[in-house]
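Side project, low priority. Logging it here so it doesn't get lost.
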Amino acid sequence: MSVERTARAEVVVEVDPRTAFRAFTEEMDQWWVPGPINFYDSARALAVQCEPGVGGRLLEVYDRETGEGLELGRITIWEPGETLSWQSSVDDVEITVRFTLVDGGTNVAVEAYIPEDGRDEGGSTWVRVVPSWFGAWCARRAHATGDRASLSRLALTVSYAKAVPAARWLADVIGLESSLPIPNDDDMGHQWVEFRVGEGLLVVSTLSEADGSVPVRTHVPWIFVDDLDAHHANAQAAGAKIVSDIQQQGYRAYQLEDLEGHHWTIAQALPSLRQPA
């Protein structure tokens, strides 16, 4: 039997509640961190925006002129400086964000509610990202230039048998910084920890179990390209061994094998990375 589920997180930001509410809604595209797994369709996503008022939409924008995009949610409560709530349009999650005056600023509390038998297809992600991403934005917004952080066209996945302890070691010893808090060691539901190194991306993932018929692969480079379909066709024409054809998982990518058996992930570049046509 399924049961109702809730998740909650909070962060204190050094601005007043009305400013925090305005920053959360009007500046959503500034605090949302771009990345291959941070959108439902990273190959097309240009922005994340929030339309004001009850009935307004949260959107993953694919066309700035027409406003075309994926509706993420519909606003059900709009009380500036106090409460923002929406019903997810991609699953059954309800999100409520409360802005409460405290010493030193505003406590921003975000709660996800998933009804009995409800689906969570990413709607609860806000609980994970708001404390880190929105908190960081409020700390720097007064001095921000308006330029969003870009990504390099080269990234790397490194896999460990125990990804979470490995990620924590990389943070503590090497000093790498994750775009989200590293989960607890016992929270193995998290298969992926993402580090930013300048414009570079280092992904720490859980090592796939080997069945003895294939080698264990601990490192997989990523290359982001402008035209994934053309790249895939060219690789096939050149006789490359395609390990997995093009798939959509937030990012759009395929995987191939080089001459010595190493795997490479070829992914569609985010719009911000592409060369002008």
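Brief comment: Residues 154-273 form a domain with the 2,3-Dihydroxybiphenyl 1,2-Dioxygenase; domain 1 fold (CATH 3.10.180.10).
Revisit when time allows.
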